[in-house]
Amino acid sequence: MADAKLIDGKAFAGGLRQRVGAGVADLIAKGGPKPGLATVLVGADPASQVYVRSKGKLAVELGMASFDHQLPENTTEAELLAVVAQLNADPTVNGILVQLPLPRHIDTAKVLIAIDPAKDVDGFHPVNVGRLGSIAPGAPLDFPVPCTPLGVSMLLQDALGSLSGLNAVIVGRSNLVGRPVAQLLLRADCTVTITHSRTRDLPAVCRQADILVVAIGKTEFVKGGWIKPGAAVVDVGINRIPTPEGKSRLVGDVAFAEAQKVAGYVTPVPGGVGPMTVACLMYNTLQATRRVAG
Ligand code: GUN
């Protein structure tokens, strides 16, 4: 069989960013508000600083306002909740992103529930989690949906068209990826199976999948022999491994070279799902602004 087609998430994310930029310009031209994204980072984790900075920079590139709040590691939960309350009340802020993980002395659930659900551009607020969990097939996504899962569903719909009736197997049951991906694919009329570390004969379950989404955080965990010939494989994993030259490189949760020989479609790492997350964050911020603009 010919090698799998690559699902080019980098290219798709570039197109999505352009559409969001055009949407921002259009909203402002029609007298609407300038979308505003607030990011909140507690502590000085270098990787988190890079992520937060790139989100703010992209927001500005797309014509939005960016409000960056960098708080020291020893910020108390009450102080963080006060910042969230201030952002909730600020009409120039349409999206609020509190970068995770938070320091251990802060209760993450308490902070996420304090964010106005209409401004919850991560889609992590229990109200938005519940909306996604109870959505009817094909009903509009008129509330914020977690960015990485939204990106996964966009890539699949772009590659395959209708997903109706396809068997989707998800490896990983996290609240951040596995569960919301399952809800989005159920909404798209897939038959969805969520698997995890206790699943019996995982390779056999995976071999039933027309769509295989892997988000387990284990380097090259899914092997070529687990994949149904022609299936669409979406690899959400980002693992950094050392190279023999003493450097490091990124690999996914799927043994890519093996998958390429069996699958019909496969996402690369890097350049697959990764670039979709921040593009979907921009999309969510524009949509949140459109909803308040009426
Ligand atoms: N940390 C790593 N990924 C994310 C994300 O998508 N949102 C937030 N808020 N924090 C993160």
Automatic annotation (TrEMBL):
Q: Which Pfam families match?
A: THF_DHG_CYH, THF_DHG_CYH_C
| CDD domains linked to this entry | NAD_bind_m-THF_DH_Cyclohyd
Q: Which residues form the Tetrahydrofolate dehydrogenase/cyclohydrolase catalytic domain?
A: 7-122
Q: Which residues form the Tetrahydrofolate dehydrogenase/cyclohydrolase NAD(P)-binding domain?
A: 146-291
Its recorded reaction(s) are: (6R)-5,10-methylene-5,6,7,8-tetrahydrofolate + NADP(+) = (6R)-5,10-methenyltetrahydrofolate + NADPH; (6R)-5,10-methenyltetrahydrofolate + H2O = (6R)-10-formyltetrahydrofolate + H(+)
- In the record, what terms sit under GO molecular function? methenyltetrahydrofolate cyclohydrolase activity; methylenetetrahydrofolate dehydrogenase (NADP+) activity
Pathway per its UniProt entry is: One-carbon metabolism; tetrahydrofolate interconversion
Report the domain of life of the source organism. Answer: Bacteria
This entry's Enzyme Commission designation comes to 1.5.1.5, 3.5.4.9
Keywords on record:
Amino-acid biosynthesis, Histidine biosynthesis, Hydrolase, Methionine biosynthesis, Multifunctional enzyme, NADP, One-carbon metabolism, Oxidoreductase, Purine biosynthesis
Q: Where is the signal peptide?
A: none
Matching entries from InterPro entries are given as:
THF_DH/CycHdrlase, THF_DH/CycHdrlase_cat_dom, THF_DH/CycHdrlase_CS, THF_DH/CycHdrlase_NAD-bd_dom
Q: Which residues bind NADP(+)?
A: 172-174, 238
Q: Does the keyword Oxidoreductase apply?
A: yes
NCBIfam families associated with the record? PRK10792.1, PRK14186.1, PRK14188.1
User: What's this protein's function?
Assistant: Catalyzes the oxidation of 5,10-methylenetetrahydrofolate to 5,10-methenyltetrahydrofolate and then the hydrolysis of 5,10-methenyltetrahydrofolate to 10-formyltetrahydrofolate.
Query: Subunit structure, briefly?
Result: Homodimer.
Q: Which family does it belong to?
A: Belongs to the tetrahydrofolate dehydrogenase/cyclohydrolase family.
Q: What is the official name of this protein in its record?
A: Bifunctional protein FolD
Q: Which gene encodes it?
A: folD
